[in-house]
């Protein structure tokens, strides 16, 4: 549990609608409190039929009520919203969003939504038919027009045997979006609507034998953050990932294409890029691969040293993308650099930008807890016209939002 003083802890209201996904709100609550936030849970009456008030009170350390006549002298339906730094509603049911769009205030949560002047993040969860119904879509449009961030729902297993779009995103994703809005309240405008985006993520794996492979320290977290932020800002996103099936959940609203080796990543990215407006090569592609794959485990022989490992150069996917891009397409590269006797991080990045010819190069200094395998990031943005701008340290979601801002600035010259 965080030891952050209470007066300095961000105040988050967690609204919980009455849907089966309400159980996931417990994990959202746990993650928020353990990362130092002061969380007040405001459920609907229906939500308490799925998760009891005692659970929310135990996890938050604060009382739970649903009606406006509890603790009347404190006027909670006004005070809770007025004092919040962020309101997150998860799950946001079709009924709850309809009430919010209509400006109704018949319980503590809807009253709180009317009085909140902080960012409001609503995370829908419902059956596909309910999400796609014109009434729900009209309510979503109304809420977004008023500045409410209505997240894209995930696709997957719903209740019973049903599957489709409408699943509540995983708690880790909801918390990432909440954290981003606390860092930067204006981080999720719907300004990428209509853009077709391809992003690669993770480190490639180059097999040596059935057991071993060559890889690098990339976790894929930054690429996933780029995809998550782009989808929530309205883009149509394809994510080519080398880390599917691992600890990272698929970002909501994103098509995920699995790949493993550099050759597989190359084929998937080049195919997806044919119809893309923006291609972001955030994956850490191995520069080399074993010259030969051995179809059995290479054994250790006592008393002798292993045979030297012969390597072959992998294709340069970024250069291929730049050479083959269609008119108006933006190509963004990533550079993970360290300083050495030949120059510092930016010296090597500038040389790389000149070699690759991409429109924008995102630069990270790596090593000693930097960039790889951590939750935060910082770096620089280098553009083909010679402009350079630092990105201060923050969450990888905030880093992603800054990158998309830069891409939009580049696209303002009617290139897209």
UniProtKB/TrEMBL annotation:
Looking up InterPro entries in the UniProt record yields: CoaB-like_sf, CoaBC, DNA/pantothenate-metab_flavo_C, Flavin_trans-like, Flavoprotein
EC number(s) from the headed UniProt entry: 4.1.1.36, 6.3.2.5
Q: Which reaction does it catalyse?
A: (R)-4'-phosphopantothenate + L-cysteine + CTP = N-[(R)-4-phosphopantothenoyl]-L-cysteine + CMP + diphosphate + H(+); N-[(R)-4-phosphopantothenoyl]-L-cysteine + H(+) = (R)-4'-phosphopantetheine + CO2
Listed under GO cellular component are: phosphopantothenoylcysteine decarboxylase complex
| Keywords annotated in UniProt | Decarboxylase, Flavoprotein, FMN, Ligase, Lyase, Magnesium, Metal-binding, Multifunctional enzyme
Query: Alphabetically, which GO biological process terms does the record hold?
Result: coenzyme A biosynthetic process; pantothenate catabolic process
Needed cofactors: Mg(2+); FMN
Per the record, the domain of life is: Bacteria
The record places domain Flavoprotein at 11-176
Q: Quick one: where's region Phosphopantothenate--cysteine ligase? A: 197-416
Q: Name one GO molecular function term.
A: metal ion binding
User: Is Repressor tagged as a keyword?
Assistant: no
Note how many cofactor molecules are bound and how.
Answer: Binds 1 FMN per subunit.
Annotated stretches, region: Phosphopantothenoylcysteine decarboxylase: 1-196
Q: Name one Pfam family in it.
A: Flavoprotein
Sequence ranges assigned to domain DNA/pantothenate metabolism flavoprotein C-terminal in this UniProt record: 192-409
Specify which residues bind CTP according to the UniProt entry for this protein.
Answer: 287, 297, 315-318, 334, 352, 356
- What PANTHER family does its record include? HOMO-OLIGOMERIC FLAVIN CONTAINING CYS DECARBOXYLASE FAMILY (PTHR14359), PHOSPHOPANTOTHENOYLCYSTEINE DECARBOXYLASE (PTHR14359:SF6)
**What NCBIfam families does the annotation carry?**
coaBC_dfp
Query: What is the role of the protein in this entry?
Result: Catalyzes two steps in the biosynthesis of coenzyme A. In the first step cysteine is conjugated to 4'-phosphopantothenate to form 4-phosphopantothenoylcysteine, in the latter compound is decarboxylated to form 4'-phosphopantotheine. Catalyzes two sequential steps in the biosynthesis of coenzyme A. In the first step cysteine is conjugated to 4'-phosphopantothenate to form 4-phosphopantothenoylcysteine. In the second step the latter compound is decarboxylated to form 4'-phosphopantotheine.
Q: Which family does it belong to?
A: In the C-terminal section; belongs to the PPC synthetase family. In the N-terminal section; belongs to the HFCD (homo-oligomeric flavin containing Cys decarboxylase) superfamily.
Protein name listed in UniProt: Coenzyme A biosynthesis bifunctional protein CoaBC
Species: Crossiella cryophila
Gene this chain is encoded by: coaBC
């Amino acid at each position: 549990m965080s030891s952050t003083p209470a007066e300095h802890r961000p105040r988050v209201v967690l609204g919980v609608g009455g849907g089966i996904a309400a159980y996931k709100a417990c994990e959202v609550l746990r993650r928020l409190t353990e990362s130092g936030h002061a969380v007040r849970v405001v459920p609907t009456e229906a939500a308490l039929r799925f998760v009891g008030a005692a659970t929310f009170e135990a996890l938050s350390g604060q009382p739970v009520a649903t009606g406006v006549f509890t603790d009347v002298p404190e006027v909670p339906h006004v005070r809770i919203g007025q004092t919040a730094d962020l309101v997150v509603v998860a799950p946001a049911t079709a009924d709850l969003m309809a009430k919010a769009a209509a400006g109704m205030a018949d319980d503590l949560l809807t009253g709180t939504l009317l009085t909140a002047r902080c960012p409001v993040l609503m995370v829908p969860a419902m059956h596909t038919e309910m999400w796609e119904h014109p009434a729900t879509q009209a309510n979503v449009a109304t809420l977004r027009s008023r500045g409410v961030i209505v997240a894209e729902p995930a696709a997957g297993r719903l209740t019973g045997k049903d599957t489709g779009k409408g699943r509540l995103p995983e708690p880790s994703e909801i918390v990432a979006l909440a954290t981003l809005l606390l860092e930067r309240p204006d981080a999720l405008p719907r300004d990428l609507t209509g853009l077709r985006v391809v992003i690669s993520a993770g480190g490639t794996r180059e097999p040596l034998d059935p057991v071993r492979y060559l890889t690098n320290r990339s976790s894929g977290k930054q690429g996933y953050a780029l995809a998550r932020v782009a989808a929530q800002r309205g883009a149509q996103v394809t994510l080519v990932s080398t880390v599917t099936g691992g600890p990272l959940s698929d970002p909501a609203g994103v098509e995920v294409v699995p790949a493993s080796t550099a050759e597989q990543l190359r084929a998937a990215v080049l195919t997806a890029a044919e119809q893309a407006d923006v291609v972001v090569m955030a994956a850490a592609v191995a520069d080399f691969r074993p010259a030969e794959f051995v179809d059995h485990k290479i054994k250790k022989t006592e008393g002798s040293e292993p045979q030297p490992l012969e390597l072959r150069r992998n294709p340069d996917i970024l250069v291929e993308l730049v050479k083959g891009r269609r008119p108006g397409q933006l190509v963004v590269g990533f550079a993970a650099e360290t300083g050495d006797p030949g120059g510092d991080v930016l010296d090597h990045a500038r040389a790389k930008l000149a070699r690759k010819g991409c429109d924008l190069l995102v630069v990270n200094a790596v090593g000693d807890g930097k960039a790889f395998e951590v939750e935060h990031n910082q770096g620089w943005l280098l553009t083909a016209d010679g402009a350079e701008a630092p990105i201060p340290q923050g969450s990888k979601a905030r880093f992603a939002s800054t990158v998309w801002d830069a891409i939009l600035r580049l696209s303002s010259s009617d290139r897209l």
